[in-house]
Amino acid sequence: MWDKLALILLIIGGINWGLVGIFEFDMVAWLFGGAGSVISRAVYILVAISAVWCISLLFRKDEELAVQNIDR
């Protein structure tokens, strides 16, 4: 469950960065009242935590991931 949640947050963050890079439009800041608002900062922090969590995916053994998928 945590892996999927982290991936969803990373997808949201990736789309937001794509919008910033292409159109100079920060959707998170736009939705929540600016980049400095508490909610925007919370979203940015959650995306960063998700990225750190997903680093662990790189170091997990394939067998361990397969067992986790079977258990779900």
TrEMBL record:
Keywords: Membrane, Transmembrane, Transmembrane helix
Residue spans crossing the bilayer: 7-32, 38-59
Domain of life: Bacteria
Oxidoreductase keyword on record: no
Protein name per UniProt: DUF378 domain-containing protein
